[in-house]
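Attaching the record inline, Q. Sequence:
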Amino acid sequence: MAVRLLVVEDDPKLARVIARGLREEAYAVDLSGDGRDAIAQAAINSYDAIVLDIMLPGVDGLGVCKELRARAIKTPILMLTARDAIADRIAGLDAGADDYLTKPFDFGELLARLRALLRRPETLQSAQINIADLQIDSLARSVTRAGVPISLTSKEYALLELLSRHAGHVVSRADIVAHVWDDNHDPFTNAVEVYVNRLRGKIDREPWRPLIYTRRGAGYILTETPPA
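Structure, as predicted:
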């Protein structure tokens, strides 16, 4: 699914490394370097998961976690820490974290733990999406139409998966920006329109019939039945 993450890490170099790796996996990533800012971002943005370092200036990770849970923000939280004592892990989980990863960590494990959090029962979704002759495998991140493999960039794939998860319903430009892009996105650019057109050029090219439609002033809809 199209996923937007908040990474809270006060080490700029590590934060950039994590963000770059996650973006390569088609995740939209926002960064925060201190606890108070993280609380503010999590309160105003809809994130699918939060990667939260425990050692932060201002409010530490435990404080951030407790505050978010006190505000009834249920976003899954993966806590990062250089502390590997059992007592520290217990403190993180008791503060409301969903999982715990000790530094230094393998990036592959970070990805696996995030995937596990995103598969929680309340957010569980099918890995296979079929719309007409379009097939999307969200685990393999592969797309075919009428059995023909279609190569997509990470952003194109994230956009297609977002539209497909809401097939038959209009997805607004604001929702696309919120889930496919991150805070680096310039809201005044026409990036959404550009990527929709690129996607159409691959998904809706001849001889296939169109699946992506524009609802002028509302957004975009992926459907096998042309809207009236």
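The CA atoms of residues 103 and 127 lie 30 Å apart. The radius of gyration is 19 Å.

More tomorrow.
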